[in-house]
């Protein structure tokens, strides 16, 4: 089961890379630049150590004591295409660092600070795997990731002086979503803000279709109490929408579903959808990919391409935050979480 999840995480990581990589390489035969600086294409840059170690549960289940910067390199490589603009990669590095240092609850792996499963912590790729995926451009792409991590060293996003929950997703419709509407808890920095990405995003618009019978079977498998009348036109209600444009509620066979539940049930890439019925078929038209809360990765890349810095990108997507060197008390609480656990945990961290 765990292996399956890890395999899925790796697959998603690869898909995230490969699709946009192909698209952007067509647009920029040189593999993309990074603003006004030149990234070495023949010599690998050194990644400086952060001086802070994390216990990372690897895809094979082992726990490895890893320097924070090294861990972040693997997260940025897995979470964002290396062809993206340097300022977008930096925004991702800061979001990933913030997540790693604020995520002290770790019920799935009490002996590790973080794991490499995107559904639990953040996606992560071993350097050798990332470089193998990149092929001929591996040195330049590795250097872009190295610069994103090293040039934002120790920086995190703070709200009211505390690290934020740095949620991010692949792409949004016109706007991101509020955490309150999608997850049911309010975070002042996770509000609905405009997001500039559009048709340049691979599979930005997708459709998913079900025949009447397929839809009925799918819903009744999950909700046996669902009740479908003779006329399919009456099976689905008109959805209601959140502030940011994703579905808030939709009633299916008399069962009220949240946008997120409908997204999962009908295998949609996001809850930003409309649905139509014609000729015995339901058609879901979907925009974007992901939950829509926090930073949009493609939106970050659009902002960077238009000249925004990583700090501006982070402050756009996380309302009211500052980007600063990680305060001492946050490092101290990481240490305390690492040494304050049971003996097994201390052994791992101190080995
Ligand atoms: Zn985890």
Produce a short descriptive summary.
With 351 residues, this protein is an alpha+beta fold. It has helices at residues 2-27, 68-79, 86-102, 127-134, 138-150, 179-183, 212-222, 259-265, 297-305, 310-317, 328-339, 343-350, and strands at 53-57, 63-67, 114-115, 155-159, 162-163, 168-169, 205-211, 240-241, 247-252, 255-258, 273-278, 281-287, 295-296, 322-325.
Q: Could you explain the architecture of this structure?
A:
The protein is of the alpha+beta class and 351 residues long. It is built from twelve helices and 14 strands. The chain has two domains: 191 residues, no CATH class; 83 residues, no CATH class. The protein has a three-stranded mixed β-sheet with strand order 2-1-3. A three-stranded antiparallel β-sheet has the order 5-4-14. Strands 7-12-11 form a three-stranded antiparallel β-sheet. The two termini are 29 Å apart. The N terminus and C terminus are likely disordered. Bound molecules: zinc ion.
Write the layout of secondary structure elements.
Elements (H helix, E strand, L loop, with lengths): L1 H26 L25 E5 L5 E5 H12 L6 H17 L11 E2 L11 H8 L3 H13 L4 E5 L2 E2 L4 E2 L9 H5 L21 E7 H11 L17 E2 L5 E6 L2 E4 H7 L7 E6 L2 E7 L7 E2 H9 L4 H8 L4 E4 L2 H12 L3 H8 L1
Parallel strand pairs: 1-3, 6-13
Antiparallel strand pairs: 1-2, 4-5, 4-14, 7-12, 8-9, 9-10, 11-12
Helix pairs in contact: 2-3, 2-5, 3-5, 3-9, 3-10, 4-5
The structure holds zinc ion.
Zinc ion (ZN) binds next to strand 3.
> What is the β-strand count?
14
Bound ligands, named by name, code or SMILES: zinc ion
β-strand percent reads 15-25%
Order of helices and strands: HEEHHEHHEEEHEHEEEHEEEHHEHH
Q: Give the strand line-up of the largest sheet.
A: 2-1-3
Overall geometry comes to globular
Helix content: 25-40%
Individual helix count: 12
Unreliable residue runs: 1-35, 342-351
